[in-house]
Structure formats: structure tokens, C-alpha cells
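Dear support,

I submitted the protein below through the web form. The confirmation email said the job was done, but the results page showed an empty box. After a refresh the structure appeared. I'm attaching both so you can tell me whether what I see now is the final result or a partial one.
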Amino acid sequence: MNIAVAQSGGPTCAINASLLGVFREGYKNSEIDAIFGSINGIEGMIEDNLINLKSIIRTSEDLELLRQTPSTVLGSCRYKLPDVDENSEVYEKIAKCFEKHMIDIFIYIGGNDSMDTVVKLSKYFEIKKLPYRVIGVPKTIDNDLPITDHTPGFGSAAKYVATTVHEIIRDSSVYSIDSITIIEIMGRHAGWLTASTCVLRAIGEEVPHLIYLPETDFDIDRFIEDIQREQAKHQAIIVAVSEGVDLSSIEGVQTDAMAGVDAFGHKFQNGVGKALEHIVSERIGCKVRSVELNVMQRCSSHLLSKTDIEEAEAIGSAGLRAALEGNTGKMMYFQRISDSPYETVIRMTDASNCANFEKKFPTKWINDSKNNVTDDAIDYFLPLIQGDINFITQNGLPRHFTGLKRS
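What the results page shows now:
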């Protein structure tokens, strides 16, 4: 038999590790001949744009480079499959691609919206009595997929964010003047990544002094009061704020620098940190700067979490095994058994339980003042950022997998 694998949604530092897991599991299985990679997610299946991964992943070094390379080597997409009764032609093209390349199994690595594709495609095959199997493997730095304890990609992103905030602390404390640094962190509707900065308390830091998440209402007057209260205790204030914090109630503030929505109806968001910088500067008047971490949060592979990468590869392997056992329309997920010692098991659920749903940061871990998170969250986050990867380097720089060259 032949199998195909694709990557979708926003890039992460761990999504290629999941691809590696699928590849390794398929390579060692005598039943499987070709392992196809679909270029640009499901679009590659629609357009019959596939590549045999065995032709580009040829050596043990290729495998290790793939493991340490961020983003999606197969490319990605944000293509929303229409309902089959709206446009059956798209599904027919996908089915023809499966038939042409004798593909029996399709593994789709992605987030909430990608699971929508897994659900629709597996249902279409079932209705048409086609024998093809479709399995979803989770990924997202937002950590907002339901059912799973956490998502591959999140741990490395959290490690990068916490490390960067740690470094900003040192930078902001060198001058003998009052200062405020507002750090904007990814998270459209869920504040997991912003909240994860609390892990700095585990090494004795007090920062961020304030943390604001989209799970709570934002009041600008209370925000200013919070900062002034912290200024009475600290000369340099560090504030972590999620990009999804809603400032729409503040007159004259525009945070959507990019108007419009993506194919799944999600608004493009940025500008919260800069907007708050202007307001704080006007109302308080001290030195204020905003820092938007932007795409570095998801592609900074020099700070990979070993736990994250190992789990990402393991869940990719498990996804293919589940398909080989006859399952379809499922998503693989992590169930946490213990925080200390950290232990998880990989299970599967119907992808429909996760498609288009979001898991918010628990309100029980948000303090009563809605300007920080509780210490209980630290026990959840800490295991996910543990361990380091030994990189293959060249001239002092990490090397990346470039077997499939993309401009």
C-alpha cells in the first residue's frame, strides 16, 4: 500500500517532527511502499501535487535535520473544504488522487481547522464506500485543541517565549528610570502561550508582573491602575498580553492592522501591544515600549523543547499505526497521567470532537484580579518545556532540512 501525509495551518517548531514520525513508522513497515508528501496541505491532494518522500529523505542525517527544522517542509495551507453537497467536485479530485497513486492512508497534521478536513474527508469516503482511511495528528502553538492535554509545537513555543521574556527582564533593568515593557504574545482566542510565561517563577523571577488573557474582559482603567500599583514596588514593569485581548471598547483604538478574515473566518490580529503602549505613554508618561514576538514564537527552533519534539514524533508514529489498524476519522491526542514524574499516553478520539472547537485557558488558573495566573498553572506548563536538542550545525549555525526546496 501507499500512504500520504500533509501539513496544514500555522507553522510550528515540532510539525516536522510529527512528519518524521509518520515517515519512520511507514519506512519500517513492510506493507508500505511509497510515502507521499502532499504539497501545501490538502491543496496538494486536490491538485495532485505530491512528492515521494523517500526520494528526498535518504540518509540518517536527513532524518535528524528534519527533526530540528522549524515550519512545514511540505508547505501549508488554510484551505477550508466545502460541504460535500456544496461542491462535490473537490472531493472527486481528492478521490482521483488517492486512486491514481494507490493511496490507502492519509495523515493530516494540523490544528482545529485541519480536523474539520479530517472529518469531512473521512465522511465522504464512508458515504462513497471508498476504503481510504484519514487520521488527524494535532499541532498548534496556541494549545487550544480540545480533548488533548496539550499540542505538539506548544512546548517549544512556550520555552521560547519564557526565555525571551527572561532576557527582556535583564535588558529592562539596567537603567535607573521607571520603565514599562508590554510584550504581545500569540493567542487569538486562547491565552495558553501568554499564560505560560508564569514558568519564570519556577526559577525565582517575579515577572511578568502582569498577565492579560483573552479569556477575561479587559478594562483599560483597571489596566492602568494595575501598572501603577506595580510601579510602587518595581522600577521596571514587564507586562505579558495576548494578541487576542479585546480593546474594542476603547474609543479610537484599532488593533487589526490587517483587516479581514481567513478561510475559516478567523480575524487577522496584531497591534494590541502597540495600542497599549500609546495609551500607557499618554496616561502614565514614563518610558514605555512594546515588543511583538510575532513569528519567532513558532519558528525559533534554537530553543526546542526536547519533550515537545519527542512527543511530536511519537504522536505522528501513533497516527499511522492507528490507520494501519483500520481506524479513520480519528485524531490522536495526549492524556496526561502525572505531572511529577511527567507521564502521558497517546490515545485517539473522533476528530469531530475537536474540529472547529477551541479549548480556552482554564479560568480556575486566572487570579481574582484577572491580571495574572495562579501557581497551579506552573505544574501544567513546566514538563512541556523540558530538555534540549543537540543540533547539527555548520559554521556555528543550526542547519535545516532543504531536501524539498521552497522559495
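Response: this is the final, complete result; the empty box was a page-load delay. The CA atoms of residues 255 and 271 lie 5 Å apart.
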